[in-house]
Amino acid sequence: MKRLAAALALLCAVSAHAQVTIVNTGAPDGRMGMASRPGGRLSEIETADDFVMTSPMRIVGGSFYGMLPAGLPLSVISGVTVEIYAIFPGASTSPPDGRVPSRVNSPSDVELDSRTSGAGLTFWSSMVSPTFTASNSVLKGINALPGVTTGGDGVRSGQEVLVSMNFTSPFLLGAGHYFFVPQIETTRGDFYWLSAAKPIVPPGGAFAPDLQTWVRNQGIGPNWLRVGTDVVGGATPPTFNGAYTLVGVSVPEPSSVLLLLTGLGALGVVARRRRA
Fold it and tell me: Which of 209, 200, 238, 223 shows the shortest CA–CA distance to 102?
């Protein structure tokens, strides 16, 4: 019986790994604010940044930095949606329709999975700083060819906030390269997802390849534009990461679980024979 109890404890340990950080791009760098919101009060805008997983994981939570207009209470944040996308051409029509400069390393046409507040996701927000300025922003200038490059929508100032999430229904993803899309719904005012340094600097955790952020609205869907290369443009276009973290729990290898279950079965047989 002691061996059986020990094996059961080992099985529980394999099935209940501690949380690990999947991605941490670091704190906001003040260069860019990117609108990202679900459809509803206003038209939908999606902004995406990538992450890499080296093994299967259950994504159980995370956080991201954003900016609200100064003076508004945090209660104007009425909902959060999180989407996970593959990289084009996965989950996409190929070849693309040619209305944007490139789809290389863009998010796919449609999401792999999503969670929204009240349906697989809980969230809370906190004030980081009452004053914050982003040197540029993307909200209205999201266009198909030929009007792609607008330079951005200019400087935006407001209050810096941190939105934290628990996924009550975790995302289950295999090893691979994905895009994270957080969307904030507000009762008033525009929410901007803030950029982080690219390349990622400590205390963030660098990974490769680290792709740039992409954005789209309903007008250019299913296509996407690169925030820096396409929308801002210039002789030397900037590139951005979104400021966010994701945490997860490792999924046990099937072979490890099978080995433990086989061992438990053998111990059960021995125990029954001894009783007999």
Answer: 223
